[in-house]
Specification:
Oligomer: single chain
Structural class: alpha/beta
Number of strands: 18
Helix content: 40-55%
Strand content: 15-25%
């Protein structure tokens, strides 16, 4: 029992395809409805295809946003399903099955017709951070002297962060079971109480090293990059957002994996959870994958060690989570990566890197060996106010474009043309609609930094047959408020005046 009401326990489940097959064969099911069109939904589709089981239609909240086909099969909204249900067996594929199961019972779907098939992987504890006070916790084993043999460095770049979430992040590092660590905390022009909060912990724990940049810098600024490069110590390092946190066993388990498997990147699973602890997933339909109260990234299908030749293939298929966070990096790799960034021309560095996509692509392309852990050891909370939903569509698209060009170069070096094109198309099909579909609208081109470079890239996109083909094909799935962005891109990309999109 947790002493704080905002700390909850949650069981993590995965789809059990073997168990699902046995259930379908035992019940002699010939046709069914499948709830969910994510990875589990696709695996269920492939299993049923091999077994000769007909899927009448899929059900998913994404149908509310215009996704009406999945593998050429109709997708209905939950309300449409509830109104048209006609006694079929219903297979629930999302791992967040409890909420969907309860919702179906409320809609009078017979319990005997609902098929669940999951196995429990682990129980995790989620800290919503509401209980943190105005002082450092007294039950932490603070280190008065800096350790001699540092295993790894945690890096946090903070601007303005709610105090309780900032304390949650800091204390998650100081509570690590491995004490031989460094915590590099960079204050990036914060105007709230961030500096005072960090200083209070630094006075207690010598492992915290504070750098105040004196102003708010874009994270691609060379001053910020050099500050990181010159101050990471030990064999490994990792990034921690100031409003996220790590499990206290993260460093111990990730370092052990890295050393035993000679991995230069160790990915752990991230729990992405709603900032609203009372949020009910089925109360409303949010676009893409942001409709779950809890979301867990995973490598798919399950595997652990991935070698260099296959890393980008897995990434192109969205089988490796694209976030830069929740990973432990060898400092030799991180040093090469930061050197690469620092040496980029300013305009390329500014346009290239927006959050996760391009960042992850580049460091993965430099990696020789990656290990994917099954355990949930990183926690990140989201809300509708996150930049994922609201900001910088130009930077998102530039990030995708540079990633695409880099992957194209890598694939052409490793694969025959037909296979390289297949992987590139998979990458674009997954990521391009998501990027163009950002809710933040396109600002006036007169306000863009490096305007000429951006317009030049739009032209390159229009000249690239594969990129243009996927963009046009996906246009019909965009919501109306995204069309202005799309049309502006197409218009500006039309350098020769013969664009017919």
């Amino acid at each position: 029992m947790n002493k704080h009401e905002d700390i909850i326990s949650y069981d993590v489940y995965e789809l059990d395809l073997y168990g699902l097959r046995r259930k379908m064969e035992t019940l002699n099911v010939k046709e069914a409805v499948v709830y969910g069109i994510g990875n589990n939904g696709y695996d269920t589709y492939m299993l049923f295809k091999n077994l000769g089981i007909r899927i009448n239609y899929f059900v998913d909240v994404k149908a509310m946003d215009g996704t009406r086909k999945f593998n050429k099969i109709e997708v209905k909204t939950p309300d449409e399903f509830a109104k048209s249900y006609n006694g079929e067996y219903v297979v629930i594929s999302p791992s967040l099955h409890d909420a969907i199961y309860s919702w179906m019972l409320e809609k009078n779907i017979p319990e005997s017709q609902i098929i669940l098939s999951f196995y429990k992987t682990e129980s995790i504890t989620i800290d919503y951070g509401e209980h943190y006070g105005a002082q450092p916790s007294v039950d932490i084993e603070y280190c008065r002297e800096k350790p001699e043999n540092i295993k790894g460095t945690f890096v946090t770049i903070a601007y303005n962060t709610p105090e309780n979430l900032l304390r949650r992040a800091i204390e998650s590092v100081l509570r690590q079971t491995v004490k031989e660590l460094k915590y590099l905390f960079i204050i990036n022009g914060a105007t709230d109480g961030t500096s005072d909060v960090v200083a209070s912990y630094a006075a207690l724990d010598s492992r915290i090293s504070v750098i105040d940049m004196g102003e708010n810098l874009r994270w691609t600024d060379t001053r910020l990059l050099k500050a990181i490069k010159d101050n990471i110590e030990g064999k490994y390092c990792c990034q921690l957002d100031s409003d996220d946190y790590y499990d206290e066993c993260f460093l111990e388990k990730a370092v052990k994996i890295g050393e035993e498997n000679n991995a230069d990147i160790v990915c752990v699973r991230t729990c992405l959870f709603s900032a609203d602890s009372n949020y009910t997933p089925l109360d409303e339909g949010l676009v893409y994958d942001w409709h779950d109260k809890f979301y867990f990234n995973m490598v798919h299908p399950l595997c652990h060690v991935i070698g260099h030749k296959n890393i980008l293939t897995a990434y192109a298929r969205s089988k490796i989570c694209s976030t830069f966070w929740g990973k432990l990096y060898a400092n030799t790799l991180m040093g090469r990566y930061l050197d690469y960034l620092i040496l980029l021309p300013d305009k390329d560095r500014e346009l290239y890197y927006r959050l996760d996509i391009a960042m992850t692509y580049r460091i993965l392309s430099m990696s020789e060996r990656l290990f994917y852990s099954d355990e949930v050891l990183h926690f990140s909370q989201y809300s509708k106010k996150n930049s994922t939903f609201t900001l910088a569509p130009i930077e998102w698209l530039m990030s995708l474009w540079y990633s695409y060009l880099g992957m194209k170069e890598e694939f052409d070096a490793y694969y025959r043309k037909k296979r390289a094109r297949k992987y590139l198309k998979e990458f674009l099909t997954i990521h391009l609609p998501w990027m163009v579909g950002r809710r933040g609208m396109l600002s006036s081109s007169e306000q863009w930094n490096y305007r000429d470079s951006i317009i030049g890239h739009f032209g390159e996109m229009a000249d690239d047959p594969l990129f243009k083909n996927v963009l046009l094909h996906k246009r019909k799935f965009m919501k109306n408020e995204c069309m202005e962005f799309y049309e502006t891109i197409c218009t500006m990309a039309c350098r020769s005046g013969d664009y017919t999109g």
